[in-house]
Design brief:
The structure holds two protein chains of two kinds.
Chain A (H helix, E strand, L loop, with lengths): L2 H11 L2 E6 L6 H10 L6 E4 L3 H13 L3 E6 L1 H4 L3 H9 L4 E7 L5 H5 L10 E3 L4 H18 L2 E7 H5 L33 E2 L5 E2 L2 E2 L2 H19 L3 E4 L6 E4 L4 H14 L4 E6 L1 E3 L3 H7 L5 E4 L7 H8 L6 E3 L18 H15 L1
Parallel strand pairs in A: 1-2, 1-3, 3-4, 4-6, 5-6, 11-12, 11-14, 14-15
Antiparallel strand pairs in A: 5-13, 8-9, 10-12
Helix pairs in contact in A: 1-2, 1-7, 10-13, 11-12
Chain B lengths: L27 H15 L5 E5 L5 H6 L3 E4 L5 H11 L4 E7 H7 L1 H9 L5 E6 L2 E2 L5 E2 L18 H4 L5 H6 L4 E8 L3 H19 L4 E7 L3 H4 L6 H13 L2 E4 L4
Parallel strand pairs in B: 1-2, 1-3, 3-4, 4-8, 7-8
Antiparallel strand pairs in B: 5-6, 7-9
Helix pairs in contact in B: 1-8, 3-5, 4-5
Classes of the chains: A alpha/beta, B alpha/beta.
Amino acid sequence: MQGSEAIADAAIAAGCRFFAGYPMLPFTELLEHMSRKLPAAGGVCINADTEIEAVNMALGAAATGARAATGSCGQGIALMQEAIAEAALNELPLVVFNMARGQQDYFQATRGGGWGDYRTITYAPKDVPEAIDHTQRLFHLADVHRAPVLMYGDYVIAHTHVGVEPVTTDLGPVPAKDWALDGSMGGTGRAREIWTWARGKPNTPGVGPDQHWKDVAAKFAAIEESEARWEQRLVEDAEVVVVSFGTTATVVDYVVDELRADGRRVGSFRPVTLWPFPGSALEAATRACRRILVYELNAGQMLDDVRIHAADRRAIRFIGGVSQDSSGMRQGDLLDAAELRTRVLHALEEAA
Amino acid sequence: MTDMRLIAASSPALMQSPDHELCPGCGHPVAWRQVLEVIEELGVADRTIIVVGHGCYTQMMRLSDLDSLQCLHGRGPAVATGVKRMLPDAVVITLSGDGDMVSEGLAEVLHAAGRAERITSLLFNNGVFGDTGGHMTAATVVGQRTKTSLSGRDPEVHGYPIDVPKLLTGMDGAAYVARGAVNTAGMAARTKKMVRRALELQLAGAGFTFVEVLTMCPTGWFVATPAGPDYLEGSMMATYGIGELKRPEP
């Protein structure tokens, strides 16, 4: 099964009943699979006319309490930033799939480009089985926190074929959606309202923008404390720890195993959630090493988060860089085990 | 308009409070009253969701006793699409001004009509960005003075206004397209019938339904408050015309 199809199946298994998107590689196949499969599951998939339409349609569906999602690659997600911020500030659960063309959307995912004090929980799977798990987890987290959440996938995950069978994962209960609109409160004197300003109606006044945005900020601060996930390998005695995210981490794992077999003390650290960034874990994992190598295929974006959290900033070296395939759709030549091995060995020698 | 007297003072049942903060002479409350009365008369208040854009009329949402979703500027018809697809039995109404729909969100309304979404979109057109203090929109008529067309909208400089109902009339997905106004009591009553027909057609499962309402903004037009209705007739109504542009065959 293709990765895109596995994600579509996982989304439907998680109860997604509304999906809207605008075709754009390597997101296109996810939209194709959803348009084919979602109606059969009793849902709706719309081939929207712009990314802006798609994300706003998903917001409307989410406001009724339905599990809703949209997606694109980073270029299209750029157009959705306003609506992602809106979902954060009017507290609508929304899942956004970034099937990215590479690793240059880290800032977009973790800092965002909308207005207001908001963040987006972002899962970056390293392979298709993780993507299946993350997809279901994201729908769950969106409902638990009433917030937009993001998957940072890529071409590799979208197009890799693997033998998997997505099944529904029980992630526990989610809060009742007593805020959802169904029209039924009209004329009762207690009609509901969803608005980023939370002003409410005369009979049921809201807290207003100042308090509401303080509350939303406090919610994201709590999420930052509780929702960070990471994976670390062989860091305890490592002289060098390589930090990477997403599918790139599979190359790191391969090289780390190779170098370990040669007796080199190398380990790896991978934020599974890009936001919240697992800062305390990174600090602990890098306390004993001499070098922290940041390997990402961009000009140095996650590098900022590593600089914020590493035990010793002076130990950080950036070994990634901009590297894009000539098609523009996927990572380029720098995603190469031999090249990475050379760079890690160089760092080991420099640290000796 | 010198001989004015109060005929009746009442608030529609679906307003939680009549205390809006709109300017004297604003046409929006009159236009919104027609909509609320139709919803009440059709008995669909308990299955109606309003999706509201950004403008002076936004506070009509806040005061109305209807389930309400405030959406991003211009995106109402897209947001309402998601609502209606998940709740096909709900009456879904979008409310926009001309800045919201004709300037910011023209793509959304045209695509919703193209898809024949079973929603009703309302355009309260006063020809200016009233909320920002009287600036030119894509629906400002030629000659209209605004803060960004101080000598009046000049086609040589500013181009021409966009007539949304005229665009929609040529679209297969639009089932009903009408334009009313609220500058006189008679015109308001006629507009109410248009809103009623649009909502009846939505309930019947017809395609996209649309009513534009020309409303007064004396503050944004820089005319005396009592002069608003006559000014509307001589400017916007003279440019756009009133009536049902498209309706299903009986």
